Amino acid sequence: MFLFISIFPGINLAGNFYVFHRLLSFWQIKWNIGWLALWAMASCGYTLFSFLDHVRPHWLWHELGKLFVCWLGVGFLCLCCLAVHDLLWLAIRFPIQTSRRLVCGAIAGICLYAFLNSFFLRVQTIQVQAPVNLKIAQISDLHLGSVSQRYCKRAIDRVNQLSPDLVAFTGDLLDPHSTLDAQTLRPLESLKPPAYWVSGNHERYAGLSKVKKLIRNTPLQPLENQAVLTNGIQLIGIEDSDSPEQVAIQLMQIPRQKDVYTVLLYHQPTGLEDAAQAGIDLMLCGHTHRGQIFPFGWLVQMKYPRLYGWYKYENCGMYVSSGTGFWGPPMRLGSCNEIVLIQLRKKE
Description:
elongated; 10 helices; 6-stranded mixed sheet; alpha/beta
């Protein structure tokens, strides 16, 4: 987190300078003190108002933070469109009027699609052979705080309509937020099936002990490096950690039954090999958002090769969700919000 805070503003300043410089050049506008101030605010606004909202909470800082987080997404897509244009321009020397139309049209169209796409919610169904018939709904990376309570309520209502036997929340249910309280989690009260929750990295950022206290007053049952028997299966929840050995270490320490079909909930898509060696049958993860905004997925995949979808190692399967909500800009490009419905089916 410290590394992110240290590096992020510098990268943002450089990226926004390129965007402002190229757009101004299209209209042959020169830099002045006003444009310099706007560039600085666009680059540092999100960091500044997020910090102010954290140390001195106020509705104004919160709303300005939401405005500038939108610019993070829009600015990034502006950067991508301009970079593609400039590469094409090396081969095809567009007239400046054509450049204006191409770049502005592409930016407007792509950003509009990305904003609208972030509010759609699909159900992704996967079939898994198992010794029991069971339906598990997975919600991951909802990021309540980035998404609204209304969106959260819509996701919970959709889960209730699916009538699963249980619900698995695989981390990042919440975002660090100045107004993080019981009211924030009110939409969870309408959840009907039994539900289990494991922590993600954003719960750690928000303060894990505070989050757990809030979670215990909801229908969700926290799994804190422990196993429970439910609906004929064994459910294991491992708390999020930056350690790549977390899955292996915790599976050696958690008391569990060896002869029961076992589903492991862990936020990050790591440790599949360790889970397979420990006799886990199915692992449910999230964290990656499938990159959320293309082409971030390429960068995320460098750290998490299992970026999205179904994977298998020996006798253990893993499903990595693209997330039920979003973090930061309310934008989705090249990815979708999803509720995952895992249907365990006996072999006929």
